[in-house]
Amino acid sequence: MKPQIEVVAIDCLMVRLFEVIAEDNMPWMLAATERLRAGFGEYLIDLVPSYTTLMVHYDLIALMPSQARELIAEALTDLAPNPQTRGQCHVLPVWYDLSVGPELNLLSLRSGLAVDEVIRRHSEREYQVFALGFAPGFAFMGLVEEALAAPRLSTPRKRVAAGSVGIAERQTAAYPVVSPGGWNLIGRTPSKLFDRERDGYSLMQPGDTVRFEAINHAEFIRLGGDDTPLENLA
Q1: Cβ atoms 191, 70 nearer than 8 A
Q2: Average pLDDT over residues 73-81
């Protein structure tokens, strides 16, 4: 591994560890995150991990750009995954139904699998949280198996319900708040994914893992889910 350092802004550097998105990247990304936080200490303003990169936002008053580069180089020397560093595993209950997951049939047709098999395959895997973005608490997860991969909708919806679970290419995610969106929707979770009262706000963080658990409508309602069909969203 040969990390590359790229300039993002006057006080931000991007550390590129990999060129290809892969689940095997995450132990290295977590190790680099730990090293960089320790190395920059009080001079670190923010550290944003993504699929293959880490954005380092540092205090420009305290550090010159050359010093920031030196700290990055020192932090990543002899980098190795720490087997004791593991994220949380979250189980998200999901009501898979056409009224809240209108692309279930589309994925069934694309894959040649029955709808029940699409649901089973989506919910049997454990997904890696790669990054947060797009909306507060929106976790990009993967990788879904090739058979379930599907491109984003050509025309995004103007409103997608909070909790909606979708697939885009080989990624999967759940919308934390009502927002526009173009992912293929297959269900809805009652879990609260973003909470201002929660430490860190987001239920999930990069490095965590997620497994979706299929539940019926009654259980969805019992857990506080909103079953308003997409076409009826105000």
Answers
A1: no
A2: 92
Q: What CATH class does 4-76 carry?
A: alpha beta
The pTM assigned to this predicted structure is: 0.84
Judged against a pLDDT cut of 70, whether residue 26 lies above it is answered with yes
Nearest Cα to 216, choosing from 205, 207, 225?
225
Inter-residue contact 90 to 209 (CB < 8 Å):
yes
In 3-state terms, what secondary structure has residue 196? Answer: coil
Architecture of domain 89-223: Beta Barrel (2.40)
All structural domains of the chain with their residue ranges = 4-76, 89-223
Q: Where do the DSSP E strands lie in the chain?
A: 4-9, 12-16, 44-49, 53-58, 89-94, 126-132, 139-142, 157-160, 164-168, 171-174, 179-181, 184-188, 209-214
